[in-house]
Amino acid sequence: MTSTMNTTFHPIAARPAPVNTEGFVAWVKANLLADWKTALSTVILGGLLLWYVPQIFSWAFLRASWLPSYEACRVEGVGACWGVIAEKYRIILFGRYPFEEQWRPLIATSLLIGLLVASCMRIFWKAWLALLWIAVLAVFFALMYGNILGLSQVDTDRWGGLPLTILLASLSLVMSFPIALLVALGRRSNLPAIRSFCTIYVELIRGVPLISVLFMASFMFPLFMPQGLQIDVLIRVLVGITLFAAAYSAEVIRGGLQAIPKGQIEAAATLGLSYWQTQRKIVLPQALAMVVPGIMNNFISTFKDTSLVTIVSLYELTGAMSLALNSDANWRPFVIEGYFFIALIYFAFCFSMSRYSHWVEKQVNKSKLR
Question: Which domains does the chain show, CATH number per domain?
Answer without folding.
Answer: 83-97+154-369 (1.10.3720.10)
